[in-house]
Amino acid sequence: MENAGRHMAEKISERVSLDQHITIVIGGGNNGGDGFVIARCLKEKGYQHHACQLVPDQKIKGDALYHKQVYEQFGGMIERVETLDQLKEKCASSDVVVDAVLGIGITGTIREPLRRMIEVINEAEAVVFSVDIPSGLPANENEVVDMSVNADYTFVVEAPKQSAFVEGLAPYYGEWEVVSIGIPLAAFSDQKQMRWQHMDVQRTFPKRTSFSHKGSHGKGAVVGGQLSMPGSVALTARAALRSGAGLLTVATVKDNIPVVANQCVEAMYHVWRDDQGILIDDSVSSLNHYDAIAIGMGMGRADESQKLTLRIVNEINRPVIVDADGLYHIKSDLEVVRARLAPLVITPHLGEMAMLTETTIAEIKQAPFSITKQFAQKYQVYVVLKGKFTIITTPRGEQVVTDTGNPGLAKGGSGDVLSGVILAFMMQHNERLPAIANACYLHGLTADMSITSGRHTETDLLASDVIDELSVAFRTIV
Ligand SMILES: NC(=O)C1=CN([C@@H]2O[C@H](COP(=O)(O)OP(=O)(O)OC[C@H]3O[C@@H](n4cnc5c(N)ncnc54)[C@H](O)[C@@H]3O)[C@@H](O)[C@H]2O)[C@@H](O)CC1
Ligand SMILES: [K+]
Questions:
Q1: Residue limits of the YjeF N-terminal domain (predicted)?
Q2: From the candidate CATH numbers 2.80.10.50, 3.40.50.10260, 3.40.190.10, 3.90.1150.10, the one assigned to the domain spanning 2-192
């Protein structure tokens, strides 16, 4: 509690000047205890502040009581705020409100008077900093908001909670950052979600040695692209090559090859048998010569392509990435997926995930962590649930989130590019989770940097621009 409060006071002082007035609103649990520590540290730094206790004295116990007493011994004055009017007055005379009313220990609907006090905090003009979580907000997904502080900033203790990554709940946090208190993450039994960050990419990204040759970086294959969709495989192939794949073969219908080859001269080509431009079930075993295969992009949903996809999933004992139309094909027989032993990565967006799990987009948005985890464990697949927050789940149920990327990626072709980066990284990393997480992180970072650099806007950014800009993001990690 001392560490948490001290670090948060430090963060607050970086954003608030000494002439600004701060009110710390304090509740009855350990979240309130953090509030007492913050009050003492801000006093120590010379801030004008009020520490307002919103609950009766008997509610302050344990560590929180200890820190209340330390604050008082330090000359701090605690004001007991009982009415809404008293709170309104405090908030009105403050530039900043530090919200240490409720943390992750809430149960049930928010009781009065705190319920209406939260409304008062939200009506105030002051900037609101929440301690650990906006008071009243559930920590986990799949819960409804009864009443919550709408924070401008939140200092999350040690590990982000699920609600920070759930569309309907995340906005309550405002901007947020993790405050480390020196407790290993494993100590938080119910908080295993991890934000995959730049330092994780740096830590896990493989180095190319001076003795590398094209064979050291993997031979990949991209299978897809019916006659009407040559661009999809071209994007995947180019993204894989730009992401370091040693050798890459595009397996597509004959008439597409000149078009794709024109955009991707570094690739090799496998003429896949077709029936009027549709890929059909043929020469599947030839794919065992590759180190990893991506399938489904631009493939179309014809029965023949479905047979082909299921045979690849069933017979190829190399890592396979299934995207786009391939996801519809595997849905027709998920038992084939379950029976498969070699790694399978699926990369659905919300709509595709709803289709695979026979739920709705709204249900997935409400409980993205548990729905994907259930699916990944049941079918023993890696799931990349794409969205504002991309959730990556392993067959064992581990989950990480990447939060790079912007609405400029919400366009046709983005998924094809991501699949290409995943394909290349699966061949270069020893471990699957870092390979996939690094791909998602860097794909999003590329889009972000294309915009912050001024070269593109969210409106004009194309999937092919992201491929061309990958080097900008890669340069940040080598
Ligand atoms: N996990 C850890 O190891 C650490 C936790 N810390 C802090 O401790 C917090 C969790 O502490 P607690 O478990 O004491 O819980 P909280 O501080 O979230 O809240 C418990 C208090 O809220 C009241 N309450 C619960 N449900 C309510 C409802 N529906 N309506 C009105 N009042 C309600 C309870 O009566 C109790 O007084 C974290 O959010 C964080 O701020 C930090 O001190 C650092 C270390
Ligand atoms: K809080």
A1: 1-189
A2: 3.40.50.10260
